[in-house]
Known about the structure:
This protein is an alpha+beta fold. The chain has helices at about 5-20, 55-65, 100-135, 140-155, 160-165, 205-215, 240-250, 255-270, 280-300, 300-310, 310-320, 330-335, 340-360; strands at about 35-40, 40-45, 70-75, 85-90, 95-100, 180-185, 185-190, 200-205, 225, 235. About 45% of the residues lie in helices and about 15% in strands. A hairpin with a 5-residue loop joins strand 4 and strand 5.
Amino acid sequence: xxxxEGAAVSAIIDAREAASEAGLRYVSDEAPGxxxxxxxxxxxxxxxxxxxxxxxATLRRIRALAIPPAWxxxxxxxxxxxxxxxxxxxxxxxxxxxxxxxxxxVRDAAxxxxxxxxxxxxxxxxARVDADMRRPGLPGEKVLATVVHLLEATLIRVGNxxxxxxxxxxxxTTLRHRHVAVEGTTLRFTFKGxxxxxxxxxxxxxxxxxxxxxxxxxxxxxxxxxxxAEGGLRDVTSxxxxxxxxxxxxxxxxxxxxxxxxxxVLAALALREYQRADSQAAAKRNLRAAIERVAARLGNTPAIxxxxxIHPAILDCYLDGALAFEVEAEPELRDGTGRLRxxxxxxxxxxxxxxxxxxxxxxxxxxxxxxxCHVAAAWPRLGHGLR
Length: 387
């Protein structure tokens, strides 16, 4: 994809404004920073000007960052209010970051605002995916639409060429022919995913089975390929999938958004099964159990699932005792949501009310009642491939 300079500049301006609003300084590790040098079993730290760091508060801040000893090319922000506090390279050469706690809060808030935008985009995405999967032959749009459909149906990660090459761990765009068996209208996926976890899923879908079988008839080992305008074969990559999603959604949507949205809705459905807890301890036990169920579906650890894939409003509402459920979603929740499922429309309504309530409550001293969430439908609807 070509570099979008305008979008990049806009993103930097937005980040600067967000940092300023959080009382932080927007920084870059291209500017001079504090360096780290190994000395015996420990480290010494050098000022950008070259002198040793002796200030006790600065040394305490550096220790609190808990920068792994294995990191190389370590850069530490000389300003305690920098939005980035440190960067470095891990043992695999990947760039890693340590952020200021307030910046993490800003970033997380933006991420969950984005989830609401994604939910609003889902009807248009699903309509376009359905149309593209009906195209004749095996053009790129048809194969990309099939991958997006599978992102939702199975919750398999989109995949990364580096992980496939270095770790032999796979996602949808890096699957090989051997990872999928098609038997009639049923697909069976068996492969090693991220962190070495084995995925075994079954999916009954006549149309997808037909498309995947056509992909398997193409030469080569990569499962998802298509014919370009010249008749040549091209592999589908995660970048292709994300570009396709941005095009059909008309906004910045990525493959990961499907897993984050699914994790949030599945958490609401899991919590639906519990009676209202009679104590905070019981509520937290139920919360842990629900998160474990969602984590098992997503193939994550519970800690990662809670931090990265479930909107905190769902968990907060349950702990507050304000998460209520009805057999069916209220009719008004379906208005304007098109192809959103009833339980998705209910969760979206909760997030919108929660967002409005939090913004209205900013600066208010009195407690604001939390909205109830009316959620319906069966657990397996999202990511209905069986693990």
